[in-house]
């Protein structure tokens, strides 16, 4: 009988050395991984520290610019501004933050001022530079700007020109309202606006602007992010006290005013002609009334600034005749509340009207050149309104002026 031999199963011996090696390698990998994570965490913390100091430095630089602008405008409001009174600070601390700023300024009124602010926090440094210039409501490129309603009759045109350079014609000019109510801007048939149309903050141009058939806005319609400042204007202090009623005394007469006639008057009544020769400033505590066919004539070498507390009422065929054809030579400032200004020019009107609390109505037989800022505005006849770009050249003696940033950059 054949015997079958069964081999015993083979059993390998434990390899203790190999297992120990695996453990060592695993521990080494974990150690390396741990060190890597620690390094990543350390780098993140360093980046966080770097980022926070960088942000603090930037805010410090911004704060320097904002403070400089605030100080300049406060000095301007108080009548204390001089062209050499430029703000400078060195290592000025920023409250509540471990950061400081250094501000330097240079420039001149004609070209604007450059303000450079260097913010520092720890090892971080950020630099911001701003260009600021004098501006005024007339310098905002608005042919017409109203607080509330603005109406343009059929076949009207809004354009721009430059009275200082008459080769510049057909320029862009804007209109706008600070209102966000439905239909605040009423643009009738066949009106052309060679510029943009602005509505008040929070307003929808499609709702606020009511455009009729065949009206054409060449630019765009925008919603203002914030309201431009329409600061109240105060009448200047003039010698002599109230000189009573200024009148030509009889219809058809002529009353001539020169710079020496500048003063405060209880009212103005003209039945014939009031002619201004020289630079004249009138503060009118009451109303201005122009009879039929009466006119205020501003001669070629004259200019008139009128600060009006009451109403301005021009009868048929009366108005303001600015012979220089330069809008800046006639400026009408409304300084009262709830005023009415009715201009009925039989010919072209050249002037700038700033009356943010007045209803301004232009019954014009011709065109209007300059800029009009009112509470409510209506162009009764189908005339044209031309914004004068020369009004953007602001002087330190102008009204409602302020310094504004025209360029902002980080360097």
Written overview of the protein:
This protein has two helices and 31 strands. It is α/β, with parallel strands linked by helices and 411 residues long. It has a 22-stranded parallel β-sheet that branches. A hairpin with a 3-residue loop joins strand 2 and strand 3 (112-121). The radius of gyration is 35 Å and the shape is globular. The model is unreliable at 1-16, 22-26 and 28-38 (pLDDT under 50).
Q: Keywords, please?
A:
2 domains, disordered N terminus, alpha/beta, 22-stranded parallel beta sheet, five-stranded antiparallel beta sheet, single chain, 411 residues, 2 helices
Write a brief structural summary.
This protein has 411 residues and is of the alpha/beta class.
Largest sheet: 22 strands, parallel
Low-confidence stretches: 1-16, 22-26, 28-38
The chain-level structural class is alpha/beta
Number of domains: 2
Shape category: globular
Number of helical regions: 2
Helix coverage percent? 10-25%
- β-strand amount: 35-45%
Based on DSSP secondary structure assignment, what is the total number of beta strands? 31
What radius of gyration results from the CA coordinates? 35 Å
Mean pLDDT: 87
Distance N to C terminus: 106 Å
């Amino acid at each position: 009988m054949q015997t079958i031999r069964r081999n015993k199963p083979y059993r390998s011996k434990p390899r203790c050395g190999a297992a120990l090696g695996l453990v060592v390698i695993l521990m080494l990998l974990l150690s390396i991984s741990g060190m890597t994570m620690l390094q990543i965490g350390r780098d993140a913390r360093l980046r966080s520290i770097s980022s926070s100091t960088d942000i603090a430095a930037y805010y410090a630089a911004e704060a320097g610019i904002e403070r400089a602008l605030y100080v300049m405008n406060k000095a301007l409001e108080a009548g204390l501004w001089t062209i050499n009174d430029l703000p400078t600070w060195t290592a000025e601390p920023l409250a509540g933050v471990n950061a400081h700023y250094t501000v330097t300024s240079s420039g001149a009124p004609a070209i604007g001022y450059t303000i450079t602010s260097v913010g520092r926090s720890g090892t971080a440094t950020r630099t911001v530079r701003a260009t600021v210039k004098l501006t005024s409501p007339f310098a905002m490129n608005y042919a017409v700007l109203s607080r509330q309603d603005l109406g343009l009759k059929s076949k009207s045109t809004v354009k721009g020109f430059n009275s200082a350079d008459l080769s510049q014609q057909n320029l862009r000019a804007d209109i706008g309202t600070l209102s966000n109510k439905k239909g605040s801007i009423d643009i009738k048939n066949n009106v052309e606006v060679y510029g943009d149309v602005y509505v008040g903050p929070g307003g929808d141009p499609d709702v606020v602007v009511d455009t009729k058939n065949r009206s054409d806005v060449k630019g765009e319609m925008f919603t203002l992010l914030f309201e431009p400042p329409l600061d109240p204007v105060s009448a200047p202090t003039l010698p002599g006290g109230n000189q009573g009623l200024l009148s030509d005394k009889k219809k058809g007469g002529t009353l001539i005013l020169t710079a020496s006639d500048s003063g405060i008057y209880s009212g103005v009544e003209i039945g014939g002609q009031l002619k201004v020769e020289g630079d004249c400033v009138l503060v009118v505590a009451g109303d201005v009334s122009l009879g039929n066919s009466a006119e205020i004539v501003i001669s070629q070498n004259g200019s008139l600034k009128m600060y009006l507390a009451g109403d301005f009422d021009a009868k048929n065929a009366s108005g303001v005749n600015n012979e220089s054809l330069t809008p800046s030579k006639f400026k009408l400032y409304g300084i009262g509340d709830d005023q009415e200004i009715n201009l009925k020019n039989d010919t072209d009107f050249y002037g700038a009207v700033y009356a943010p609390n007045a209803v301004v109505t232009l019954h014009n037989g011709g065109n209007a050149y300059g800029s009009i800022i009112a509470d409510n505005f209506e162009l009764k006849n189908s005339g044209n309104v031309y914004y004068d770009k020369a009004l953007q050249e602001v002087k330190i003696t102008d009204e409602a002026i302020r310094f504004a940033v025209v360029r902002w950059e980080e360097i």
